[in-house]
Backbone:
């Protein structure tokens, strides 16, 4: 018996995995989508199905996050709208690359290798940050200074008037070339890997377009919503989105995001960031093992990579829940209502 | 996968996007109501465990 094409055991798997991904997203503000595509690849889904379904999942999580963020955050809808053309073009290019590689029989390999590098890079950044937290009193003042301040790089870029120039919501001006470049560049990554791209878009909006940090976060979220919608539509045109997978993942992640978000009121992020970094490094190793399993034709390695990926995600989720429960028992801090 | 085979591909794609949008809004509202209703008793239960 199956529902939306998924047997009961896969429903349990995807709802549980969605819950973990949601906890990460709610707690760290990222980490959702870039675990979904590799997991689907390891489970044997073809690259276009894994990426298309991940894009639809990104759209769903971005809708939920934007609904929540709209109450408390800042979103520069004008900038988001101006990036739209670049996003559409970028996602189409990314999708063409995926289908081109699929036609050559190389899509799973190339996307897999890209994920090995991506997860390893982000994992290293998180692990390094967690390890160097102890002696960062002398950290640069980006987050300690005026919240409306923008970095020097953005000021330099803004000093060149490359027409057409547009005025943003905060009154500053930016070149359409930079805005379209950011939208298009992140769009290619989104369309190629099936990710929301917030981990690239947010810094790009802050450092290249020169939008203050708080607005950059909200606008990046809005960008993820547009990327997800465009990507889901584009991959949907090719009929490669598995609605059952997306539905199960969303059921779990929407719940997990609330738990993760509530946990931030109790759990010190520094306590668990190191585990999240290590989990991403293990995820990178898991995808590499999955690729190796395909090359060597050894299904045992496939199982090891699956257990490594799901096991490390489950461990970090359990760690967050453990710290949260312990803090509640000790009567630490009241939860943020929302 | 859901079979939309009888529909034109553009309609299929829009249906998928619409379905995900509706599901997301429903989950946001549903889990929000659930959180307001059972959140405080769950926290009390953890504190008193």
Residues:
């Amino acid at each position: 018996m199956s529902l939306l094409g998924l047997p009961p055991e896969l429903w349990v798997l995807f709802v549980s995995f969605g819950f973990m991904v949601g906890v990460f997203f709610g707690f760290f503000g990222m980490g959702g989508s870039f675990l979904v595509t590799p997991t689907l690849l390891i489970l044997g889904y073809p690259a276009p199905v894994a990426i298309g379904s991940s894009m639809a999942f990104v759209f769903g999580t971005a809708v939920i996050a934007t609904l929540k963020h709209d109450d408390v955050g800042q979103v520069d809808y004008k900038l988001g709208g101006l990036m739209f053309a670049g996003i559409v073009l970028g996602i189409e290019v990314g999708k063409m690359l995926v289908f081109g590689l699929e036609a050559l029989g190389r899509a799973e390999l190339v996307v897999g290798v890209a994920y090995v590098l991506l997860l390893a890079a982000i994992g290293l950044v998180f692990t390094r940050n967690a390890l160097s937290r102890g002696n960062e009193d002398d950290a640069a003042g980006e987050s300690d200074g005026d919240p409306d301040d923008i970095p020097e790089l953005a000021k330099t870029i803004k000093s060149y008037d490359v027409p057409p120039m547009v005025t943003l919501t905060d009154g500053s001006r930016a070149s359409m070339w930079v805005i379209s470049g950011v939208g298009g560049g992140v769009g290619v990554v989104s369309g190629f890997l099936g990710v929301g791209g917030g981990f690239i878009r947010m810094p790009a909006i802050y450092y290249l377009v020169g939008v203050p940090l708080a607005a950059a976060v909200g606008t990046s979220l809005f960008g993820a919503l547009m990327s997800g919608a465009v990507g889901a539509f584009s991959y949907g045109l090719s009929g490669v989105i598995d609605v059952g997978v997306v539905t199960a993942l969303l059921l779990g992640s929407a719940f997990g995001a609330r738990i993760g978000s509530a946990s931030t009121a109790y759990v010190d992020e520094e306590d668990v960031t190191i585990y999240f970094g290590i989990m991403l490094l293990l995820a990178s190793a898991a995808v590499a093992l999955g690729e190796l399993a395909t090359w060597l034709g050894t299904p045992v390695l496939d199982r090891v990579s699956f257990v490594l990926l799901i096991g490390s995600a489950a461990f970090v989720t359990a760690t967050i829940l453990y710290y949260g429960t312990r803090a509640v028992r000790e009567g630490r801090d009241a939860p943020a209502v929302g | 996968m859901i079979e939309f085979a009888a529909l034109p591909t553009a309609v299929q794609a829009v249906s998928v996007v619409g379905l995900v949008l509706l599901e997301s809004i429903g989950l946001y509202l549903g889990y929000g109501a659930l959180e307001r209703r059972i959140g405080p008793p769950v926290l009390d239960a953890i504190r008193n465990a």
The two ends of chain B are 44 Å apart (CA to CA).
